[in-house]
Specification:
The structure holds two protein chains of two kinds.
Chain A: H1 24-37, E1 44-48, H2 56-59, E2 63-66, H3 72-82, E3 87-93, H4 94-100, H5 102-111, E4 116-121, H6 151-154, H7 160-165, E5 170-177, H8 181-199, E6 204-210, H9 214-217, H10 221-235, E7 239-243
Parallel strand pairs in A: 1-2, 1-3, 3-4, 4-6, 5-6
Antiparallel strand pairs in A: 5-7
Helix pairs in contact in A: 1-8, 4-5
Chain B: E1 8-12, H1 13-23, E2 28-31, H2 39-47, E3 54-57, H3 61-73, E4 78-82, H4 84-99, E5 105-110, H5 126-130, E6 141-143, H6 148-165, E7 169-174, H7 175-179, E8 181-185, E9 212-213, H8 222-241, E10 244-247, E11 254-257, H9 260-275, E12 280-285, E13 287-289, H10 293-302, E14 305-310, H11 316-323, E15 329-334, H12 345-357
Parallel strand pairs in B: 2-3, 2-4, 4-5, 5-7, 6-7, 11-12, 11-14, 14-15
Antiparallel strand pairs in B: 1-8, 6-13, 10-12
Helix pairs in contact in B: 1-2, 1-6, 3-4, 9-12, 10-11
The chains are: A alpha/beta, B alpha/beta.
The complex binds thiamine diphosphate, iron/sulfur cluster (SF4) and magnesium ion.
Chain lengths: 247, 367
Amino acid sequence: MKQVFTRPESLKDVPTHFCPGCNHGTVHRLVGEAIDDLGLRSETIGVASVGCSVFLYGYFDIDVIEAPHGRAPAVATGAKRARPDRIVFTYQGDGDLAAIGMSEIIHSANRGEDITVIFVNNTTYGMTGGQMAPTTLPGQKTSTSPYGRDVSKDGAPFKMAELLAGLDGVAFSARVSLDSPKNVLMAKKLIKTAFQYQVEKKGFSFIEALSSCPTNWGMSPLAANQRVTDEMVPYFPLGTYKNRADL
Amino acid sequence: MNSPVTEKIFVKGNEAVAMAALEAGCRCYFGYPITPQSDIPEYLSRELPKTGGEFLQAESEIGAINMLLGASAAGVRAMTSSSGPGISLKQEGISYMAGSELPGVIVDIMRQGPGLGGIDASQADYFQATRGGGHGGYRIIVLAPNSVQEMYDLTMLAFDLSDLYRIPAMVLADSVIGQMKESIVANARPEVVLPEKGWAVRGRGEGTEQNVVKSLKLGDGEMEKFHWMMHDRYQLLADKENRWEEYQTDDAELIVTAFGSTSRISKTAVTMAREAGMKVGLMRPVTLFPFPKPAYAALSERCKLFLTIELSTGQMVDDVRLSVARDAEVAFYGRPPGAGSLPTPEELFEQIAHRYRARPAVAEVTL
Ligand SMILES: Cc1ncc(C[n+]2csc(CCOP(=O)(O)OP(=O)(O)O)c2C)c(N)n1
Ligand code: SF4
Ligand SMILES: [Mg+2]
């Protein structure tokens, strides 16, 4: 009998702490598969951020550095400059990357650091209990936007995949989603492409993954998944925004 | 490593730091421009690439310290440098490095503050440096050069101690030492047996354990254990690495104590006092953390009057008071940082002279 589904070698055989229906687990798996497929497990350094994904080292069976909140791209820059022959990726949430870490991400991308950034956009600060994030949708209620995000006061959500695509140093920038089997397969392909670009030393590669946070959205896993489809995808269109191979 | 160098060269303090970093095998430098330390990145931007190293001008001091964290975690020697406002921004990263037991060298060419302050010399960041500076309760190694030669030698030492103890190390100087030119001998890197960096992240390879560099400690009792372990390590550091310089302390009835630039001016004033027939000496701590407490304690067994001199309203003086015998008096003279606040030798001589004359007579020992 042929085994068609198994745990990627890059992931440990442990249960995760993620809430039911949370997409962090899905993204972990896809990143693990990409690392396995490209045969990078023994040479990859992961940089964890501060957020619900802080336990990256507990789930990935690779070397990991834990960075201060928002600083993962700077930490990854240091590691990559020290060991240019290694594969270095960061894994960051929207609060981490697009609020406190905006300076680090923009500058790393603009320098064209040969790193891969996995950006999990769940429109909220998951770990701290669902506060408003820089990607919280207009009108979305959170624990610190009880009347809904007011764009006239809080600004509009950042569209990071588009924003970074505009920088010359960026080789690859794409937005994926995990709300349907088709989209998961697309996400798998593009995450692998992002790592492949680093292997080929093409420059900075970026994946934004639209993700659900049932717990802080106050929804069932199914309803949360539906929200990704109905509300997030229309605001944050899926697709590849920059592909140096196209240039 | 170069062949032994004995030839004298005439360089700036900041350049000596950069040269020492190269000799010490620093592979990565990350920094952000700020006066009065910019000669360090300028020198390294020119010279580090020639040795195959990486020079990177970061987007901010926050960026720079986190790049240092990443490079150190990857197991290479790395350095950053800055001054007041930039050192404040680095504190988050230094705290994470301390929590992750990462080595790394941070050069602080102190300027005035608080806030934007000014670019003249100051010693008002003594507390920030010696008390850890960031959150969580930790210490870093702090070395205080008072000459261009020491800028060179202590930078080299900072790399070794930092690697040896897995504690970030700071070279703490001020704009006087950073900017002045003196002749030095660019000594070759000393041969020191250093432990393998088996903990570094390199990509786990095949058949080896996963390496994780982190400061998060959520296990039952894990954080408490970490704090006590570091407490013991600081003690070991104090037992083995205290460094200081004494000048004419043997028969001294008043001992002036100062670090960095003020120790230079103090030494001139002490010499003037000797010429005037006063029994005055100088005690200069070279390591500020660990602070050479036993050396102060020993001095205070025979000398009961100390005069601490600082370019602040008094910070190191607290450590002096904690170190000397209870019956020793510790006086203070400070020139808080400000343009033109550098004291003259004559001014310090006056401070010494009136305290010396007013000192209590040494009691006859009667039984
Ligand atoms: C300097 C600093 N400020 C604030 C925090 C508290 N904090 C922890 S996680 C987090 C936000 C996490 O949100 P996000 O990055 O979106 O990740 P998620 O949990 O949603 O995956 C915050 C603000 C911190 N750890 N450090
Ligand atoms: S709080 Fe949200 S982001 Fe965090 S684990 Fe739960 S569902 Fe996932
Ligand atoms: Mg989030």
